[in-house]
Structures are given as structure tokens and as C-alpha cells.
Write a structure and sequence with these properties.
binds adenosine-5'-diphosphate, binds magnesium ion, alpha/beta, 42% helix, binds aspartic acid
Amino acid sequence: MKFGGTSLANAVRIRNAARVVRQFSSVNNIVVVASAMGEVTDWLVEIGDLAQKGEAGKIRKRLQEVQNFHLKTAKSVAGRRKTRELLTMINQLNSELERTVEGITHLRELTQRSRDYLLSFGERLSTPILTSALRNLGLRARALTGAEAGITTDDNFGEAKPLVEVTYHQIHQRLGQALNRKEIPVVAGFMAATVDGSITTLGRGGSDYTASLLGAALGADEIWIWTDVDGLMTADPRIAKDAQVLSHVSFGEALELSYFGAKMMHPRALQPAAQRKIPVRIKNSSKPSKNGTLVSAKESDNGGRVVKAVSIIRDVGIVTVGGTGMMGAPGAAAKIFQTLGSNNVNVMMISQGSSEATISCVVAKRDVDRSVRALQLALLGQGYIERISNEKDTSVIAVVGSGMKGTPGVAARVFGAVAKKKVNIRMVAQGSSEYNISFAVSEKDGPKAVRAIHEEFKLNG
Ligand code: ADP
Ligand code: ASP
Ligand code: MG
């Protein structure tokens, strides 16, 4: 069971999460995964940026807010018993956090590595607090960091990848033992460590990934993701007010939704579960008796409807490489992707112009400048590439549903609906999956495009 930041936003929510675990623990062996409380990871990101700029005054204030927030929550969760162990732990972590921020401020240098170390405090602080809440209910719970639970990654800081074999082996061994002792392991999500012990993170939203890895390694019956909505919905409910909960989606569909729904789930989160065919349930921690969404290997019939949901990914940009010499030049595309790949840029979407010789790639906004520089260095001056341009204010819209590609007319309806709202489409994906059609629009048009598709395919009921 993984509890998202929204389900651990304050002492009341944390006590609620603990009750949810207790409710299901009488008949199940449970492993718990904790996210950082509320928006703490965002706060730490901000502190890191301020530290890099050396803004000492602002940092002190923000840092104290984070420290007090956890201390206050810990005191409240511990209740009258005021378990000294918990408060000592939180105080220790708080001073370690302070030293980390001081270090970054002094050097004015925030590497991916030190950033991971800084961000890991969110989960390192929330995990012992949730553990304490579980103990207060009489459960035998024990807090573990991601590394202690067995997750070992490569050193791609910021977006580290688990070394699957060693990770599965370690998880199986360590958590298996804890479960045999009838303990409930409470694992800090999102964070792990390299072989030599440096702290890494799995990328934003990575607690889902932690849960999926642990579930797969242990051969869990199910993986439950507790959040603040009733399940996976036909669209982000903050954009389409009449969005509906989907009772069942296949791994293929969920993967597309989560990949493009950025906020809802970590893009790779479902991979380990999908590989081992372990069903994933997404449920509302405020309404635990509701069924939520079941994600499983079964292809669900959607009452004959091909489009199931529409999703948006923000903070992306388009990098376009163009030049007449590219036409018919074998290997041009390979060179582009090789260059981006070796610079650790993740390409989310590709499209190739046919009349004009261009290749466009959608990448994360933070990677745009780096991509352009890398491509300039690698490609310009060799004859076939003339220009490399970029746009940063972009959103990608993904229309998801199994069997969509095989059904004629869906694309026409998608683009027709968007055009009717006078939204300009900047790029269309050369999709390979049969589960989605995706396209890029300007950032400001994103929500409008989502609503247009939600309406067109009557996803509201
Ligand atoms: P957590 O803290 O539990 O990880 P997140 O904030 O990461 O929660 O994700 C939950 C939020 O994702 C919801 O509150 C909702 O606003 C948003 N969201 C975006 N797209 C969807 C969707 N298709 N279905 C459900 N929620 C969505
Ligand atoms: N706390 C991390 C984040 O906000 C991981 C997670 O919540 O899943 O990205
Ligand atoms: Mg999340």
C-alpha cells in the first residue's frame, strides 16, 4: 500500500492512513510505502534553488517552515505518549537537512546528486511519522529507507533506474524476513541508493514506482495506491469538472495515462507490476470502501467506446531539427536520438515532417536548452542539418483507449473537436502504441483541448 503526499498531508490524514492500514492488516500481510507529506518535495525543490542562488534570508525562513511542519506533525501524531524515539529521529533529520542546505548555500552549487540528497528528506521525514501512527494503533511497524528495503539504482541522479535483479533479490530477502516476523515494513518511497550508498531518487512521483517494485519483488496479490481522488478518471478533475472514475483499465491504457498524466503517476511506475501481472488498485484514502480503479492485464470492454480518457502533460517543449539535406540522408534520425540519449534526454514524442525535412521531438522543458546545445554540437556544420529550433510553452494531450488505432475516424474526430475550439495543433505524434493518439498544443490552450475531447467523446457519463 502506497500513500501519496495528499494522503499524508497533516497529522489528521496520517492517522487516517494508519487506520486504513489497520483495517486491512487483519487478513493481509501489508508493506507500506510513504510519500513525502503534502507538497514537501516541492518546498525542498524551492529551497535547493534558493540555496544555489545563495539567498540566505529566504532559505532560513523556508527551511524553518519545513522543520516546524514535521516537528509539529510528529508531536501531534505521537499524541500524549510523545514517543521520544520519534521526536529524536525528526530532530536528527531536521539538523541533517539544515547542514545539507548550508552546504549547498556555501558552495552555491546544486548538482543532480546533491539535489537528490536534499529531496530525499521529504520521505525520510514522513516515514517515521507514519510508522509511529501505526504503532499507536497497536501494529508492529518498522521504518525503512528505500535503500534499506533493498532498492539499489544506477547513478543517474534525478531519475535513477533500479538495478532490477539485485533489487528484487534484496527486497525479497529483507522485507520477506520482516513479514515473516509479522512486522509491517514502512518504506520511504521515491528514494533509493547506488551500490556505493549515495542517495538517489527515482524521479518525481517516484513513490508509485517504489510500491510497484516492492509489490513485484514480493509477488504481492495486489498493489494499492491510496490518493485523494476516487481512482483514475476520464480526465484530470481539476480541468474537466465532470470527469468520471474509470472502474477498470488495462496496464496498456494506464501506462499511457500515467505517462502523459505526469501528476497522477510516475511514468514507469506500472512496469514492474505489469511485467508480473500484479493488479494495481487506485483508491481514495478518505473513502476506503469505494472500489476505486482496478488496473490489470485484462483488456476491458468500454461499452463499445474506443476513447476512454484524455490526459495532459505540462512543462514540455519541442525541439525541431531541420534541413533539406536531411531528406534521404540515412542515419540522420539515428544521430539525433543518439545525441539526445547520450545526454540523458528522454524523448517523449517524435514526429517527422514528410514534405519539409524536419524531425521534431517533445522533451521535458528543463531539457530543451541542453538538447539544443547538444544537437548543435553534434550536427551543425556537417552539411545536412541547417537549423535547430525550439518552443518551450507547450503541453501534450494524449487521448487514450484500447483499440483506438484500429478504428477509422477517431483521429479525425479528435482533431476536428480541437479545431472547433480554435486551438492550433503544433505537432502530432507518430504513435506506435495502439492505445493513444497524442498531439502538442500551446500551454495556454492545453485545458481547452482536454475539455474539447472530453465533450466530443462524451466521457462525462
Ligand atoms: P498523490 O499525492 O496521491 O501522489 P497526486 O497529486 O500525485 O497524488 O495525484 C493525484 C491527483 O492527480 C488528483 O488529485 C488529480 O487532481 C490529478 N489527476 C490528473 N489526472 C488525473 C486522472 N486522469 N485521474 C485522476 N486524477 C488525476
Ligand atoms: N515526493 C515525491 C514527489 O513529490 C514522490 C512522490 O510523491 O511520489 O515527487
Ligand atoms: Mg503522486
